[in-house]
Amino acid sequence: MGVETRNVRTGAAEGLSACKRLRINEIFHSLQGEADSVGLRTVFVRLTGCPLRCRYCDTTYAFHAGEWLDIDAVLDKVESFRTPHVCVTGGEPLAQPNCLVLLERLCDAGNRVSLETSGAMPIGGVDARVVRVVDVKTPGSGEAARNRVDNFALLTQRDQVKFVVCSREDYEWSANYIVEHRLADRCQVLFSPSYGEITPTMLADWILEDRLPVRFQLQLHKILWGDVPGK
Question: What percentage of the chain has pLDDT greater than the value 90?
């Protein structure tokens, strides 16, 4: 999502406590491409690392590359873009425990903060002011066994769950899943077509035919800039 400011570095002095640092893949300024804040100018903080290997992953470059930054330096960079919307993403941001500290600090600074997480990590420790966008991994992702069902009870109407649908089989699985876990009663439910696997029109037609209580979405950043890392 968006592109600007890759491989951000800081001149923070050596010896800073490791508990105040995070490994950051990139910080950039763009338009939010997904979820209910789509189209808003947003600063993205992409953390390095992810324990999952989804078949359709478009951010494999975030698995390992990154710079260790002090949380104060991250906040300074975010503030420099002069927008209150901040999205913490990955990789899987919650794989780094200090992500929880970063989220709290971003909220304390007056930002409207969202978190994009794979659904494979517990979300109970996330600051209550953060909007949580939680993936539900479909069979087509290859990681459906990693879904943490216990996270669902923590979701509120401010939060969202996202299904990336790769096929008709994925769609039917997802439609049954939202009923089984009463997800539409808990929060917003987002359905996206897996980029290059099914067409947006196919997914839209299926949703309309079955009258699903979900929000169809496309990845705005890919419409604008294509499937390019860092956008």
Answer: 75
